[in-house]
Write a structure and sequence with these properties.
alpha+beta, Immunoglobulin-like, 4 domains, seven-stranded mixed sheet
């Protein structure tokens, strides 16, 4: 609750970070407040105290980034069934930081200082009975709009160039997914192999479909004419007006039908799907028309229901080998492209295929439609070329070995698992609008969002950050509970503040989306931070090194789109780190031994060291599809998950005590330990040599060694907790010291104990110490070079 309403700047929330003007910020207390706000509002700042003028902002090296998770679950506050209260001038929404005058029945906007009148339904509001919008713990509000909406649309696109076992597993997973959807959902089905088939769901006595050549790029207009669709677009009644048990004749689009009408019919069609009948010659790949199928799917939904939340779920088991979007020829003797081929210009299909899928992605975005890709094959399928379909539309990307694997079925269960209210945790047809106080300008957004053209405000900066700015509103076709956007700002203030008492600024995120039930909802999150005087120590004290590392990784991945070699990107990362350490470190010039970093900067060099070694930047032993998948994930995950991608976490289990978080270093590989490694993409249980001896001796089965049996179960139980909720679900690996799969762990640890080259071959550093065979520079050497560069007098400040 708020105490008094004298000035807008005096209003604070119990969850908002707002130290007084003269209060010095302490990093430990600050991070406690930061994590509380992230848990409640899904917001996290790289810099929690902002300099007022541009010159001071430039000295920060890293941009003013703000991470926001638009639909972060918050079950303690239910959604409200009325419209938000908007400011008449700037269209900001009423929030706890606004000044309320209950005598005159009005309020003052904290963004533009405009005086507004409360709507009639707030007539009974008083200081003792405040509206929810003016309560301190309601910095995030969600409203259910009364406007009629359309039901969501799910269009399944299935690859039939699979063997019978894989195809059976895929069909079973899709049927199970249908059971999780709301009955009002419109569903459709397309199958493809050498040809593309759009299945008619009008439940005629004879099942039939429309077949198209897989070598043709059919335009939306031609598809509309041949299928007889388009003229009924938008005629479908809103969700709450659809009568129960209504005949499918009321729904003229026979290719997209309500699930409550065609559930058994579409399940029967899926069950009877067979493998592509066209024969495949020995030494040749199947003729697969992925590009034509995806083009058909995009054309079907854009002709039928433009501007309505829709998901196109593409399940592909191999590369596109014919028609538009082709990524490789049909002869096995010609391997699919690699990173080396791309660098050497030996990838003839990449440029054209990439442009083709980017065009499809832009068409989908313009109609608020999402494309999800589930790729399951031992070889590559073309995710590198198709990545824009997921990155631009906010779709999900999954990479697996085959559809018959437990990993694929578990991922489908997680993705279609209802929340505690029985709804799918997904938002479709979403847009995020950002409003900011005076002297705060919006530069851009890094994440699965596309700028809305011609949507500008006084808060939009002329600095188009990495090509993602020029607007105050972004379209996000699909948002999950953990989908996180990173907004970049800049300050435009003068050298000094006009009124030192007004030392706070405010940012508001307004997300409008279509709920899984079909409702239109508006979620509003308003946060505040404070200005700092030039050269104030509070600026450094307000630094969040975890958020900064994720911002750097997103910027690096975005730059890799235009710099595939990655050399300049790594140089940019190194220069940024050196300049940051030079700016905020404590040292004597040209004396590396005196170098030190404040507490809230201390872990940044280690995180950047692991970022340079991660699969986000390194391409050796990584396919183009895998790189596309890893980079897609880091652009969507929240700060905590993205930090695990950058720097995996390692836990040690032993008989000496409870589990401990240990350093990601080769010295942590002790023979009497069990290690649990979480790389986000892999969960690895690693058993030391002594542990394996005890297992082989059968100690875990002896009653007198029950504590050892409990030790073996502990990491398995902890791993199951992670596996139960994460998407994409990580691979589960159990290995031992010297095992072939131990590489998943050894490739991630810092090689402080590494084998070195001796005159007669590789030599262990010392007996009994686990070492890593690598040519990588270890963290110790990396830090030595960093200290020398950071304290150098020749560095341009």
């Amino acid at each position: 609750m708020f105490q008094g309403t004298e000035t807008a700047s005096s209003v604070t929330s119990e969850y908002a970070y707002s130290p007084s003007q003269h209060e010095s910020v302490q990093p430990s207390s600050l991070m406690h407040s930061v994590r509380d706000q992230e848990r409640i509002d899904g917001v996290r700042f790289v810099w929690n105290c902002w300099p007022f003028d541009k010159e001071d902002m430039a000295k920060l090296i890293l941009p003013l980034g703000v991470f926001h998770t638009p639909i972060k679950p918050r079950f303690d506050i239910p959604p409200f069934r009325y419209e938000p209260v908007y400011c008449a001038k700037c269209r900001a929404v009423l929030n706890p930081f606004c000044q309320a005058d209950f005598r005159s029945k009005g309020w003052i906007c904290c963004f533009c200082a405009n005086r507004n009148t409360f709507p009639p339904q707030y007539a009974g509001a008083s200081e003792q009975q405040r509206p929810a919008e003016l309560m301190g713990n309601f910095t995030t509000m969600e409203y259910i709009s009364s406007r009629p909406v359309m039901p969501p649309i799910y269009l399944f696109v299935l690859d039939t160039c699979l063997d019978n076992e894989e195809l059976f597993a895929l069909k079973d997973a899709v049927v199970q997914a249908l059971l999780s959807l709301p009955k009002s959902t419109l569903v459709g089905l397309i199958t493809f192999g050498r040809t593309v088939a759009i299945h008619d769901l009008s439940m005629d006595i004879i099942k039939h479909s429309f077949i198209f050549k897989g070598t043709k790029d059919i335009s939306a207009k031609v598809l509309q004419d041949q299928l007889g669709i388009g003229r009924y677009s938008g005629v479908l009644q809103p969700l709450q007006q659809i009568p129960k048990n209504q005949s499918n004749e009321k729904f003229p689009n026979r290719f997209l039908q309500p699930l409550e009408i065609c559930e058994k019919f579409i399940a029967d069609i899926i069950t009877n799907i067979t493998s592509d009948p066209w024969p495949t010659a020995i030494g040749k790949r199947p003729l697969r028309s992925t590009g034509a199928a995806l083009n058909t799917a995009v054309g079907l939904v854009e002709n039928s229901f433009p501007g309505t939340g829709a998901r196109i779920l593409l399940f592909v088991g191999g590369p596109c080998t014919q028609g538009p979007g082709m990524v490789v020829g049909d002869e096995f003797k010609i391997p699919i492209r690699s990173h080396h081929d791309l660098i050497m210009g030996n990838a003839p299909f990449v440029v054209r295929a990439t442009q083709y899928y980017e065009t499809l992605a832009q068409r989908a975005v313009s109609n608020s439609h999402t494309i999800d890709i589930f790729s399951c094959a031992l070889d590559q399928t073309g995710l590198h070329e198709m990545k824009s379909c997921c990155n631009l539309t906010g779709g999900q990307m999954f990479l697996g070995d085959n559809f018959n694997s437990q990993l694929f079925s578990q991922n489908m269960q997680v993705l279609f698992n209802p929340d505690q209210h029985g709804d799918l945790p997904v938002a479709l047809n979403a847009s995020v609008e950002v409003k900011a106080s005076k002297n705060v300008k919006i530069c851009g957004c890094l994440g699965p969002a596309v700028p809305q053209a011609n949507v500008r405000s006084s808060s939009v900066s002329d600095n188009n950050f990495m090509g993602t700015g020029g607007t105050s509103e972004w379209r996000c076709c699909c948002l999950l509970n953990n989908t996180t956007l990173c907004f970049v700002f800049e300050t435009s203030g003068q050298e000094t503040m006009v009124n030192p008492q007004e030392n706070q600024f405010f940012i508001q995120f307004m997300t409008t989306y279509q709920h899984a039930t079909g409702q239109k909802r508006i979620r509003v999150t308003t946060v505040n931070r404070r200005w700092c005087e030039p050269n104030s120590p509070d600026i450094a004290a307000g630094f969040d090194q975890e958020a900064a590392a994720v911002l750097m990784s997103r910027m690096a991945v975005t730059r890799l789109e235009t710099e595939p070699l990655g050399t300049e990107v790594r140089r940019w990362i190194d220069r940024t780190l050196v300049r940051t350490c030079n700016r905020f470190g404590k040292y004597t010039t040209d004396d590396p031994n005196t170098f030190g970093l404040p507490e809230n900067f201390a872990h940044l060099p280690t995180t950047i060291f692991h970022l340079r070694r991660s699969q986000l930047l390194q391409t050796s032993n990584t396919s183009l599809d895998e790189s596309a998948f890893y980079r897609h994930c880091v652009l969507k995950q929240d700060v905590v998950s993205a930090n695990i991608i950058i720097q995996p976490v390692l836990y040690a289990y032993s008989l000496q005590g409870p589990p401990l978080s240990v350093m990601l270093d080769s010295t942590s590989l002790q023979p009497d330990r069990i290690l649990l490694l979480d790389t986000f993409f892999h969960i690895v249980i690693y058993r030391g040599e002594t542990i394996m001896h005890w297992i082989n001796a059968g100690y875990d089965k002896m009653p007198e060694y029950a504590n050892f049996a409990s030790l073996l179960k502990a990491p398995v139980e902890d791993a199951e907790v992670v596996l139960s909720h994460r998407f994409p679900m990580p691979r589960y690996v159990v290995t031992e010291q010297g095992g072939s799969q131990a590489r998943f762990l050894l490739s991630k640890v810092n090689p402080s104990q590494a084998q070195t080259m001796a005159p007669f071959g590789w030599q262990q550093p010392q007996e009994g110490v686990t070492s890593v065979l690598t040519e990588d520079v270890n963290l110790q050497v990396f830090m030595e070079h960093l200290r020398k560069l950071a304290v150098s007098s020749s560095l341009n400040h």
